[in-house]
Amino acid sequence: MFRRGESIQVKSPDQLAVMRRAGLVVALTLQAVTAAVRPGVTTRELDSIARDCIKSNNATPSFLGYHGFPAVICTSVNEEVVHGIPGERVLADGDLVSIDCGAIVDGWHGDAAVSVPVGEVTAAVLALSAATEAAMWAGLEQVRAGNRLSDIGNAVEIAINAAGDYGVVEDYTGHGIGTSMHMHPPIPNHGKPGKGPLLKVGMAFAIEPMATLGSPTVGVLADGWTVVALDGGSAAHWEHTVAITESGPWVLTALDEIHL
C-alpha cells in the first residue's frame, strides 16, 4: 500500500475543493446508512443504501472492487475492527457496528467512518466508541502546517489512554488520501511527538483511530478482509478526511463546514 521514500501529495485549493465534494458525498451516505441502523437490518441492506446514495450524488464508490473488495461500505460488528464485508448478518440489539465509506468525485477521494450503536448498547461499549471518536478529533486538531506527522498519532494515543483502559490497535493506520484512497504516508495511532515529515498546506490525510475494550491484538478472518480483536472484545472505529489549509485543519468529510 505504501512505498518507501514516496512523497506526500500536496493539493491546490481547487483540488481540495473537489475533495470536499467527495467528502460531502461520504458524509451524506454515512448519514443515510446510520439512520437505517436498527435491530433486524442486515449489513447487506446497509450496503445497498450506501450504493444508492453514492450513485444519486453522481459519485463512485472507493471501496467496491478495491483489491477485490466486494461491497460499497465496510460493516464491522462488535469484535470486528475494520474491513467487515456486508452480507446476511442481521444486526441485533446491543451490537456496535462500524461503517466505513469512501467516494470518488472527478478522481478525488473522501473516506470516513462512524461507529453506530444498535438498539440498547452497554455503557462500556458506548464509552469505548465515545473515547475513540474523541481521540479522532484530538488527532485532527494536530493536522496543521508546521507540526510533524507523529504529532497526530501521539495525540490520538494520549486521548484514548486518558479516557480509560482501552487497547489502541497498532496494526492498522490512517493514511494519506487524494487521487488514490490509500496514499503515503501511513499514520499510526500511537507514538512519540515531533517525528516524521513536516506537515504542509495542501496535504490531506484520513485520521482513523481503532480501539478495543480488551487486548488490541488482531487477526484476519478466512474471508481475507475482516479484522477482528482476537480476544473477542468489542471494537470501535472512527475516521475523517482532513486537509491542511493556511488557516488550519479543514474536515472534508463532515456534513457541516468544520474548520478547526
Automatic annotation (TrEMBL):
Keywords: Aminopeptidase, Hydrolase, Metal-binding, Protease. Pfam families: Peptidase_M24. Residues 18-246 form the Peptidase M24 domain. The keyword ATP-binding does not apply. One of its GO terms (cellular component) is cytosol. GO terms for biological process: proteolysis. One of its GO terms (molecular function) is metalloaminopeptidase activity. This is Unannotated protein.
